[in-house]
Write a structure and sequence with these properties.
mainly alpha, 11 helices, 83% helix, 0% strand, globular
Length: 259
């Protein structure tokens, strides 16, 4: 019950915050915030408190692997958005993500193996999406923000009901389902255009590098060091890796962009 209450409270707050950041500072910053483990980190902590450190460690490996599937959604959507309708891009992104989820769920659940696959994959997906150049966004209709929140809540409730019957691997992987990526990307594409959606989705994948650092530390340390020090270290690593990756990629891709 505590976990459900948290999700119901956190989901609207996350959507509202990410949308405000996107509209004020641009899609890259809004996406970066969305990609951080702002909901999966507290959910992981709940798993540790309710099911034990061992369960949380195994779930963190699943989440770490699942980040690649989430990034696959973002890349497939971003690449198809320039030529496809937003609905078609959603379908293509969902298909790519589902295929990756199936493959990744069959891999050995080992933290270092998951990290060796996830971090290079996320970096490659950021480069595949490329830098976007969104123009000035038109005014959003009044119903845009309530609709984003409503769709996000409905999806979270459905996944919560399913996760109650699953073990640690799928509980962890379900935490990375690209719900917010799909909602934020689809609404942005529809109202602000493909380039704005690409900027947002690229930011999400960059933020996911921070989420990867968080889950790797939880997977390796929560049993050995205990819940409090492991989660504190993981949260700090998430922020450092996400912001450092953002700064580095902006410099590298900015320098290589044609002038």
């Amino acid at each position: 019950m505590n976990l459900l209450i948290f999700k119901l409270a956190a989901t609207p707050l996350l959507v509202l915050t990410a949308t405000r950041l996107q509209r004020r500072y641009g899609g890259t910053i809004g996406g970066l915030f969305t990609g951080l483990p702002v909901t999966s980190a507290p959910l992981s902590l709940f798993l540790a408190l309710e099911n034990g450190a061992g369960f949380a460690a195994r779930a963190a490996v699943g989440t770490l692997l699942g980040l690649t599937a989430m990034g696959g959604f973002c890349a497939a959507y971003a690449r198809s958005a320039r030529r496809a309708h937003w609905g078609t891009a959603l379908v293509l992104g969902a298909a790519a993500s589902a295929a990756l989820f199936v493959v990744l769920s069959k891999l050995p659940q080992r933290p270092l193996l998951a990290a060796a696959l996830t971090f290079p994959a996320l970096l490659a997906l950021v480069l595949l999406i490329g830098r976007a150049h969104p123009g000035v966004a038109p005014p959003h209709p009044w119903w845009d923000l309530p609709a984003r929140v409503g769709f996000a809540l409905a999806a979270v409730l459905g996944i919560t009901a399913a996760a109650a019957h699953l073990g640690p691997t799928w509980s962890g992987m379900l935490a990375t389902l690209p719900i917010l990526s799909a909602i934020m990307g689809g609404f942005t594409h529809r109202h602000a255009g493909a380039e704005a959606a690409r900027a947002l989705l690229r930011g999400i994948v960059v933020g996911a590098l921070g989420a990867g650092a968080f889950n790797l530390i939880v997977a390796l340390d929560v049993v050995r060091r205990g819940i409090t020090p492991a989660y504190a270290s993981a949260a700090a690593a998430a922020l450092i890796v996400a912001w450092g990756s953002h700064a580095l990629l902006e410099r590298v891709q900015g320098a290589s962009a044609p002038h």
